[in-house]
Amino acid sequence: MRRWCRTGATLAIGAGLGAAVSRLLSPIGGEEEPDRFGLLSRIPVVPVPSVQASELTVSPGGSGAAMKYGFPSLANIKTRESYVISYDPRTRTASWVIEKLNPASLSGPSDRKCCEFKEDDSVHVFHRSTNQDYKGSGFDRGHLAAAANHKWSQKAMEDTFYLSNIAPQSPHLNQVTWNNLEKLCRSLTKRYLNVYVCSGPLYLPRQEADGKFYVRYQVIGRNHVSVPTHFFKVLILEQMDGRGVELRSYVLPNETTDEKVPLERFLVPIETIERASGLLFVPNIMKRTSSLQAITNK
Fold it and tell me: 84-88 and 77-79 as β-strands: parallel, antiparallel, unpaired?
């Protein structure tokens, strides 16, 4: 029987989210099972091929189109039919995933019921996640590039089910708030020429009883897949008149939150995400436009 996980969820941090996250980012200061020798004796260590930006090809609604505003980082970049990904082998999840949305990419004959979550064979077996890692973990397999964003091609939709495009999400986040944010992204294609979406995980510090700040997060499964404390989405919105772009950036906690909290409450300054993630968005965007408006309270 085929099983699949719907992406979505919404987290409520409140109006002070940006300030709270900024405070968390202020500078302050599981044992593995010892069976790795048996594994090494059975599996050869082979290099994972890298992809240079110059090798990317553009197809209608495909990954090449996502290159327009550059990449927020250049490590372990891979391309799929419908998105571009930077993979982090340490966390077994992506650092970021970029996709381009427009009315053409949102319509087509693709059927989600024909898709299944699958391992990414392009990632070394030591560094990839598996479906077994998620089984019984209490976390959903949450999409970064959403399946519903790529109905234009069955292959494009199926590519969103690679586990390299998936991260452990709270069921409530995945099925409610994150899902609502994905729907918002799709609805914006009616108002903007193109909608570029970059999504990824965050691992934010928390102050503990001793007054110090620590970054702590759970790992799941035999492969120790990291569970993000938060997720981000950065939206680059091209205006219909071609006069520039708008930028919206969201941070959502990976936990259950009040469904009544509007998505606008999760808007944060783009600098908050850049500092937290180690990624840079604005410099690349400014190379392609002379007009950039950041929306932080709309």
Answer: antiparallel
How many helices and strands in the chain, by DSSP H and E? 8, 13
Catalytic residues: 143
Q: Are strands 192-202 and 206-207 parallel, antiparallel or unpaired?
A: unpaired
Round to whole Å and give the CA distance between 113 and 101. Answer: 21
* DSSP-derived pairing of the beta strands 93-101 and 84-88: antiparallel
How much is the pLDDT for 21?
55
Q: Which two tokens stand for residue 52?
A: 């240079």
Q: Tokens 């936990």 — which residue?
A: 255
Amino acid at 186: R
Amino acid, single-letter form, for residue 283: P
Q: Which long-range contacts (CB under 8 A, 24 or more apart) does 133-136 make?
A: 133/92, 133/220, 133/221, 133/222, 133/223, 133/225, 134/168, 134/220, 134/221, 134/225, 135/221
Q: Which residues pair with 226 in a beta bridge?
A: 219
Report CA torsion sign: 102, 103, 109, 111. positive
- Rounded distance between C-alpha atoms, residue 43 and residue 46, angstroms: 9
Q: Are strands 292-295 and 219-220 parallel, antiparallel or unpaired?
A: unpaired
Q: Is the dihedral of CA 278, 283, 285, 287 positive or negative?
A: negative
Q: Which residues of the chain have pLDDT under 70?
A: 1-64, 297-298
Scan for tokens 């007009």, then name that residue: 291
Give tens-digit pLDDT for 115-172. Answer: 999 999 999 999 999 999 999 999 999 999 999 999 999 999 999 999 999 999 999 9
- Give the total residue count for the chain: 298
Please name the amino acid found at residue 37. F
**Of 173, 165, 168, which is closest to residue 94 (Cα–Cα)?**
165
The torsion angle over the Cα atoms of residues 185, 190, 195 and 198, rounded to 10 degrees, is 0
CA-to-CA distance for 212 and 176, rounded, in angstroms? 33
Instruction: Give me the half-sphere count of Cα atoms (radius 13 Å) on the Cβ side of residue 184.
Output: 23
